[in-house]
Amino acid sequence: MSALALRYDLKRDGHAPVSVAVPGGTTQRVRLPDTEARNHLVGAVLSTRCGLDEELELFGEPVRGLKRLQRGRLHERIGVLTQAMGLISNLNAWENISLEAAYHGTQPIARIAQTAREALQSLGAEPQAFLARLPDEMDPFERKLVAFLRLLAKEPALALIDGLGEGLNREQSARAARFEAEYRARQPEGTLVFVDLAEEEVP
Amino acid sequence: MIRALREVEGGLRLLMNVWLRVPALRRAPVRESFLRQIYFTGVTASTGVVLRASGLGALIIAFTMQVLDADTSLAVKILLWVVLREVGPLAAAMVVILRTGTAVSAELAMMRISGQTDTLRRMGIEPYDYLVVPRVMGVMVATAALTCYIQFLAVAGGMILSPFVIQASFTELYTRFFDLVAPVDFAYSLLKSLMFGFAIALTCCYHGLNPPALTLNGVPQSVTRAVTQSAIAVLVINALFAYLVFGVLFFGLVKAVV
User: B29–A46: do the CB atoms touch at under 8 Å?
Assistant: First the structure.
């Protein structure tokens, strides 16, 4: 078993090769040269699949050629917060946070509720009112917060956060920067990866 | 023509998928969605719209009796054959198409267009399990419940209204109605309403999940197709049912007590 939690290589015609290696248990900020490379990396981790021009290893295991069950097991250890956030519009914040765990029966709902309450309180939101709101009633930071809480509920060994500060104002970006501490408090052994474009300011 | 064939094929595949995936109702979020669907389709519809639909039943009785110059015997037959067997299930189906069919197809089309069905897949949640099964099952149950409710209101309304139009007392109508009505009438309308609910939900889910374009323009097109085809499906099922039950199967087997 490699000590790397994430290893990713991308070779494209006419572009410099991209190589990412993230040791397990660390927090890393990965800056990629362009949006295409970023979409490739995030898409590969999200789907635990890779194309012909890329190589992906998660927790030392190459994802190419994995069987469905193995892919599923690997997927359970990974949490990804994408820019699109992927919230379900007719579910309120709490239902969005707990849906995956409740559907698969992987985590006790009481534990998810406690994690969500504690994280919301430490991030300055009032849990009762916040959890009852629909995504359309939220600002970009609040939607990102719901997606982050959904990620936390999964208790992932590897969390990948794509473009954390994008679409947020300065004050919201400052609040979003506290996500790292929240993740670390709950997953001291976990690996946290922030993905951004090279020219951007990472919060 | 090709589109129609593709829709039939897609609908049949969805039908198989739904039946095979019914055990998904054991999962908590799917069960919750199922109960929510029953609440939306059945409970919220039972206030205003259903009262109006059941008024239609009473109106049919009043109109037919006046035109046909009906006596007590004919009034009871109209109550049973027209209102209980036909108007009840059809009125419930129309309420469900107009309220739930439009909502389901628009909601699913929006989810498909905005990529929410892909999000569900990424979470390992099969959209058929989470979106289609609870809606189809919920709409079936709610349509059957609405049908019973409309039948009760329409028949009761007819019995209360009839004495004002014909020479018959409420008690006389009530007694003759319950002499004539048989359990098969309730089984017939229950089965029919379950099939109506199934066809409506399946059609609306299919068009919601397969909008003609993955842009916002696809939403109204999905809704239009879903509503039109649901109405056609209901009418076809109604005609088939009437023919099978009263034209072939029951003729000579079940004797109407008149």
Answer: no
Q: Judge whether B250 and B117 are in contact, CB under 8 Å.
A: no
Contact between residue A93 and residue A133 where contact means Cβ atoms under 8 Å apart:
yes
Sheet containing strand A191-197, strands side by side: A27-32, A191-197, A158-162, A78-81
Q: Could you give the CA distance from residue A133 to residue B223 in angstroms, rounded to a whole number?
A: 27
**Taking CB atoms and an 8 Å limit, are A100 and B123 in contact across chains?**
yes
Question: Domain A4-197 carries which CATH code?
Answer: 3.40.50.300
- Of A164, A93, A166, the C-alpha closest to A135 is A93
Give the nearest partner residue to B28 out of A75, A90, A102, using CB atoms: A102
Give the global pTM.
0.84
Q: Give phi and psi for A7, each to the nearest 5.
A: -130, 130
Q: How far apart are CA B196 and CA B193, in angstroms?
A: 5
Interval A2-37: pLDDT, tens:
489 999 999 988 888 999 999 999 999 999 999 999
CB contact under 8 A, A86 and B111: no
Q: Which residues of A touch B119 (CB under 8 A)?
A: 84, 86-88
Whether the CB of B26 is below 8 Å from some CB of chain A: the reply is: no
Give tens-digit pLDDT for B215-258: 989 999 999 999 999 999 999 999 888 887 777 655 555 544 44
The three-state secondary structure class of A73 is helix
Task: Please determine, for the modelled complex, whether the ipTM score is greater than 0.85.
Answer: no
Rg (CA), chain B: 20
pLDDT tens figures, A87-139: 999 999 999 999 998 898 888 899 999 999 999 998 888 999 999 999 999 99
